[in-house]
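Notes from hallway chat w/ T.B., transcribed later so I don't forget. T.B. wanted the structure written out for a chain they're using in a teaching module, and asked if we could keep both sequence and structure tokens in one place. Agreed to drop them here.
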Amino acid sequence: SMVFTLENIAADLQITAWFAPRLWSLSVVSDYSTASPAAGAHVFAENTMINASVVSPLGDMGGGIRQQCSGWTLTGHYPAAGASDHVAFTITNHATLTWNWSFAHRLTAATGPNGVLEPAEGWYFAGSTVVITAYPAIYYHLGAWTGDISGAGFASNRLTVVIIQPRVVGANFEPNLTAARGVPEHWLAGY
């Protein structure tokens, strides 16, 4: 800052002053996708609202694998980190925004008639644990899990899998039978 002292003023003076806002640098780092602001160095005036984002996910790399933004870190600033593909903050000092990327795998859960699986499908980061729940229709029960269920955990109508590769799982639903004669309950309900 500068201080000017005016002394012994004998006439009117006009003073013109230009004030420049404080400038801060923002470095953006992203190994994939299109970032906004773009990857590289940027300069912003103090208190500028930054709305940063990346395009995520990237397209399927084939076989149920894709790159997906797993979050961001903001070094030298607050907030420090997040788990989304966008962040908004007011810049008040120098900072580095790094977009983090991870592999995601597709999980597909398919059934035949007489029940549903939830979630039915989705993309999950490698290493994620997913619990798939079987919901049989009335008069039916879960008969068996099918598909890529190696290493899965089973508990009642739930299947727990760790996503380390794309998986396709399924479930067969069987009719409930009466204890006395083995008649399907859904058939009896029609009468």
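Follow-up for T.B.: The helical segments are 185-189. Might be a good example for the class.
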